Amino acid sequence: SRPAPRPPPAPCRANASVATLPNFKGQPQQVRDFLLYKHCRDFPLLQDVPLGKCAPPVFLLLVIKSSPRNYERRELVRRTWGRERQVRGAPLRRLFLVGTAPNPLEARKVNRLLALEAQAHGDILQWDFHDSFFNLTLKQVLFLKWQETRCTNASFVLNGDDDVFAHTDNMVSYLRDHNPDRHLFVGQLIHSVGPIRVPWSKYYVPTVVTQEEQYPPYCGGGGFLLSRFTATALRRAASTLDLFPIDDVFLGMCLKQEGLKPASHGGIRTAGIGAPSARVSSFDPCFYRELLLVHRFLPYEMLLMWDALSRPNLTCGQQMQVY
């Protein structure tokens, strides 16, 4: 069964006062939109998952950020590493976090698709906000708020993009050595970097958004693992901090606010993986056998890699090709 829908929140209005900020009109559209609407945090839930999704026990909750039109990626995740199953007795559950397409015509079509997916798989959480790069932080905050009432018992969470390859068996082995009620936040650690001030960059953050010249340490947003203790801490911090347009940096800010630190895990490669030599493909499954997560994979590559790693006769130490 599905939860009863709550009344929709009142539409959130733009904060017109930001138009008086220095050089507001000269900023790119995504920066102006972010500043006008960053106070908006309450959006109708268009698709919810069945009430039993997080029926205990849930050892690892796979939380996958997806753009509305990325149907093929979601399907491949469902067929491969995102399958809901038990790994050596540890139950895995899957959720996709989705907004709406900014174009109204496309939104109607894609919302129908997402409704069909939700009906078939029970794994879609969709809110009625424009799904965009600068709204990924909003997506994280809405999930944390949803989790508070619906899924706090999950011991651990994988938070990742829909184009990562996650070796969920290895994740379970790693997480078995950790206490879900202690701090854990691991990924590819990024530190000693600050805002990119060049306007043509996807990651452009002008001084009108932040005067700070250095970000706190954070983990690359392609994929990271956290405990339920840390999810609670992030939720607490996120409710008090202003939203920031770069989602992985925002989570670093939340950790700092809580007096917690992100950590590095060598098996999480959000910047991809290179081949050790020109003669060996970086698509050799033996590279991936010991890793936890790699960003980024095309859908067909995900299926090929999953198939190769699932073969009982995979032998390493000799060159092995997926295709």
UniProtKB/TrEMBL annotation:
The keyword RNA-binding does not apply. It holds the Pfam family Galactosyl_T. GO terms for molecular function: N-acetyl-beta-D-glucosaminide beta-(1,3)-galactosyltransferase activity; N-acetyllactosaminide beta-1,3-N-acetylglucosaminyltransferase activity. Keywords: Glycoprotein, Glycosyltransferase, Golgi apparatus, Membrane, Signal-anchor, Transferase, Transmembrane, Transmembrane helix. This is Hexosyltransferase. Pathway: Protein modification. It is an enzyme of class 2 (transferase). Gene3D superfamilies: 3.90.550.50. Belongs to the glycosyltransferase 31 family. Its EC number is 2.4.1.-. GO terms for biological process: poly-N-acetyllactosamine biosynthetic process; protein O-linked glycosylation via N-acetyl-galactosamine. It is a single-pass type II membrane protein. One of its GO terms (cellular component) is Golgi membrane. The keyword Zinc-finger does not apply. It is found in: Golgi apparatus membrane. The gene is B3GNT3. Its main location: Golgi.
